[in-house]
UniProtKB/TrEMBL annotation:
Its EC number is 3.6.4.13. This is RNA helicase. It catalyses: ATP + H2O = ADP + phosphate + H(+). It comes from Saponaria officinalis. PROSITE patterns: DEAH_ATP_HELICASE, HELICASE_ATP_BIND_1, HELICASE_CTER.
Amino acid sequence: MATLPILQFEDKIIETVENNPVTVVIGETGSGKSTQLSQMLFRRGFAVSGVIAVTQPPRVAAVSVARRVAQEMDVRLGEEVGYAIRFEDRTCEKTKIKYLTDGVLLRESLSNSELSAYSVVILDEAHERSLNMDILMGLVKRLVNMRERLKFRVLITFATLEGEKVSSFFDGCPVLNVPGKLYPVEVFNTDERPKSYVEAALKKAIDIHVNEPEGEMLIFMTGQEDIEKLVMKFEEKVRNLEEGSVMDAVIYPLHGSLPPELQVRAFSPPPPNCRRFIVATNIAETSLTVDGVVYVIDTGYVKQRQYNPSTGMYSLDVIQISRVQANQRASRAGRTRPGKCYRLYPSEVYHDEFMEAAVPEIQRTSLAGSVLYLKSLDLPDIDILTFDLLDPPSSYESLSDALRQLYLIDVIDENGNITRAGRTMAELPLEPAIVVEDFDGGER
């Protein structure tokens, strides 16, 4: 921990936070921003007047980073350091540093729109640009002005160079750049796209296991189905290897649908003379650090939900990742020692076909849930059609579609005011249309 680059910038960070309500921190991979910023602020007294909240996009990250911080501070998890995710809250009255998903923080704001329990809100990994994160940035921008006298502080961390864009959104707030700590990563590309990325990943994983020195391996797949298929095939292949010809192997899945107790297994060190394989979705691209990863296999794909407002239908599509995502995946191999990244696509695909960055979720999803949430806040200074967002929705049609959906299911009235049913529905972490189907027995 003592060698993490961000620790060298502690005085500068604290000085900037003291003098500015909002600070953007561009922390490169390996800088230590997710675990150290909260501890810095705690050491300097920022938790005296309230809790330091740190958002993490995936649940598994909120849990694992909270565990790490509690360990570093030598406190019991759930006391001074805790976490809150859907269906699980490990905090108490003593909690001073609280890791939580952005969805949980949004739901907390329904009962306390000023988030008065918090003295600092850190929006970590904001570059992932989830819908919840974009809504939160709009809300905290409003809160900064409201709680100016109370020294409410906001920090927003990015791992990419979009920091200047965020600075402009927050009226020219300062941007601090913190270098990362990365070991060199050798990148290998295939000559062409494989017909099956599952089979190609399996073949490459076995080849590395048989021929490369010790070191853990992280394999990026698109979703739970592909992960389970690869785990099953890999276990069968390993059983068929000649006994004693290669070290043992343990293979763990890692995706958002796994219960927390099974997610934790992926972070446990393997037994002696045994290589650990982690087959994960894109939740392992950022925040999560699996100690000992030396080899990364990148299929080049991600599963993404897309919404078409003209049809009112979602599709779950396997699409190519962006160059930012590809770089994040490769960097996982260089966190603790030099590593190797095997990309199952040609370098021409990376340069010519991948987008620079992923499309923000707000531009590819239904806004019905977010509009209902904002309506439920009952804040006179919020106009749904002009709500301040880092990036606007893809079209005016998206907002009008959301309002139409909400009116048709009777959660807003003809004047756009939220109904009693709408207030109840806003408290549920589900799409409004899904909730209505459940209420109506699936008939509507």
